[in-house]
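[worker-b] picked up task from shared queue
[worker-b] task type: protein-ligand structure
[worker-b] ligand name resolved to zinc ion; SMILES cross-checked against name lookup, match
[worker-b] sequence length check passed
[worker-b] input payload:
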Amino acid sequence: MGPPAFVLAALLVHCVFLASLFDIYFSSPLVHGMAPQRVPLPAPARRLVLFVADGLRADALFGLDGSGAPRAPFLRSILENNGSWGISHTRVPTESRPGHVALIAGFYEDVSAVAKGWKENPVQFDSVFNESKYTWSWGSPDILPMFAKGASGDHVYTFCYTAESEDFGAQDAAKLDSWVFDHVKDFFTSSRNNQTLYSALTEEKVVLFLHLLGIDTNGHAHRPNSREYKENIKKVDEGVKEIASMLENFYGNDGKTAFILTSDHGMTDWGSHGAGHPSETLTPLIAWGAGVNYPQRVASQFFEDSFLQGIWKYVKMGVLLFAQADIAPLMASLIGVPFPLNSVVRKEEVFKRRLEDVRQGKIRVLEKLFLQYSNLVHACFLSLQVSLCKTVINLALEGLSYYHTYDRLFLGLSIAMGFVGWTAYVILVIVKTHTNLAKAAPRHGKVGQKHALFLLSFFSTSQ
Ligand SMILES: [Zn+2]
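[worker-b] inference finished, payload out:
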């Protein structure tokens, strides 16, 4: 094999190795062709408001400030008096895009997106927004367009500041959030003079999404322990309060609005995110309004995770532990739209917790389900069915994961052996062309050198 052919072969081999990496490990978890499923009950809410405070840490939101007062007084009063709170577990990479995909589409980011540009939708996926009748969203141009682009038809609307004007948040990033709150208020005010918009807003299965980037930006610039980060949490708390009361007014206190506030990921003490530290993966969740249960006071609750235990001591109310991808089916059931087609519930712990809630009637929408059937079905029979369902679901999830990864060992071994073979070949070529070992071999006649010579002749037959 001459030098050009050798270089060409080397390039080819490395291309194959690189491609195999993507082919084996970056395969899409999306499963297509499922029939849409929904909760077969009347939806408790006509509309859902989703606030995502980008980069908001759970301990920063629930914690107290220096004087012992809650940092977010409005949200604090919600979780003490008329809502539920929880911790949603995100997965690595703790970045904005995969976090939002888990929240809104209900599955963990398709890593094949990395190979295809990441920003726009490389793979079509379904989302709660797509299943809604109308979704209006306000916030960053890095997040909103991916859900509008994937949506079928014209029913997901976005209002973004431009990427350049994100700089207007350079002096005070909280302005990014004021921009969103102001635009939502103006939008609702203007709808009073726009009959088409007004009637669309009063439809059922409506979603309003407010993406708030200020806290993340402040966290990167000043770290989560800074005055700026904490002040921004206060601003968001005030903004959420204003939006909630504006909406109650607009809809004449019809009690048909459900609210969810969460974050896409947290942030480390030094102002970064992407990895798997609890400060990055544990994000806050507060839900209130139509279909959401009132808070449960509990005397104590134990968590193995000390970070989680630390958060609980600030609130001392029964906490719900969620996987981030569970929030999408929760939102879908609140407004009565089918679960996003690609959504997946994997965490057995959460499933158990949900079953507990169903049994105790903790979540009102599920409580109704329970009451509806309790007259017909004996409690024992129900619990037998529940445990059967549980087994089937766990088996299905195991199977799903198995079929997503079953050939990885075989393919990985093949690639590893190919790599070892290629390395051996390269070493032999170097030995042959850059040393006189091959020529020296017959003279000394040592066994090892004879072997080397045999291998050399084997590999260089093509010459
Ligand atoms: Zn960030």
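[worker-b] attaching auto-annotations
[worker-b] Strands lie at 47-53, 83-89, 134-139, 156-160, 206-212, 257-262, 282-289, 319-323.
[worker-b] releasing lock
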